[in-house]
Amino acid sequence: MGLYQAVLRKLLFRLDAETAHHLGLWVVSRGLLSARPLRDPRLEVEAMGIRFPNPIGLAAGFDKDAVAVNHWWRAGFGFVEVGTLTPRPQPGNPKPRLFRLPADQGLINRLGFNNQGATRAAARLRARQPGIPIGVNIGKNKDTPLEHAHEDYRLAAEALRGLGSYVVVNVSSPNTPGLRQLQDADSLREILRVVRTVDPVTPLLVKVAPDLEFDALDDLCATALDCQVDGLIATNTTLSREGLRTKIDEAGGLSGRPLSPRSDAVLQHLGRTVGDRLTLIGVGGIFSADDVRRKRDLGAKLVQMYTGWVYGGPGTVPRILTDLLS
Ligand SMILES: Cc1cc2nc3c(=O)[nH]c(=O)nc-3n(C[C@H](O)[C@H](O)[C@H](O)COP(=O)(O)O)c2cc1C
Fold this sequence. Notes:
This protein is an alpha/beta fold. The protein is built from 10 helices and 13 strands. It has one domain (3-325): Alpha-Beta Barrel (TIM Barrel). Helices cover 34% and strands 17% of the residues. Strands 3-4-7-8-9-10-12-13 form an 8-stranded parallel barrel, surrounded by 4 helices. A 3-stranded antiparallel sheet has the order 5-6-11, with no helix packed on it. The chain has a two-stranded antiparallel sheet with strand order 1-2. The protein binds flavin mononucleotide (FMN).
């Protein structure tokens, strides 16, 4: 057990989860994390025309407003995804809205896209130093009616055009009412069309929900291929509470270890159906090198983590990368 798990995590976990998150993000954004990038040509991945120094990225939602983009390389990440960013700033849902489930190594969140808006993040991205690839994840404001959702994706894509290595259309968060309906063919097609029109060159991905049936996933894949999307991210958090030890009655999306089986099943299905044509990014329950290997075997070219990093601390990525090399 490292210093983080033995001491720091105990202290951080005494704070309410969202306060601890802000404290952690502040530490990273000030460059206070000791640098431990692990450079090795064997870890490099080339995907969608982008060179990734290693296959492990920080998943969307941790650095929503791109406040620490200059520093994530210090934690060893090979890329970072900022967002979800909406065109206008919004506060998200009332607190408390983030809960730890230590017995399950999971989290439940219903943050609801709290973010400072695409324009502020764009300013930070414009001023950033060159470094690891950055993905830009976009969504709709809560008060935008679903039938106008594509307008929000267009505005966010415009504000952030040219500032990321790839763009992600997020239609899979469970905490914005109706958002996941945008995974339906007609809505998704319209969103992808407007985002492609705004930015025809940057690789475009869609982030999918783990709660879709395989039939619905197949429809989504057909739309994605038709709209010449470059990749899929599988998956977002789940509404299911299957297999939880913790007794907890909080609404929101579940992440971490308990998400892993369902997230793997979705990835495997995507791997079998479109793995040769689309870049797949596997996310959901990654804590160790074995988890990374498993996601890769299921078809993922790259992986991302959020909850595993919260539980494992700043040494997590170098530890996994060292293990992958050995
Ligand atoms: C607190 C929290 C906030 C999140 N916010 C976002 C978000 O804004 N956009 C998004 O696409 N995914 C968001 N996610 C989902 C993660 O990016 C990831 O898909 C999910 O947590 C599964 O990975 P994990 O098991 O490694 O946490 C969030 C997850 C958590 C725990």
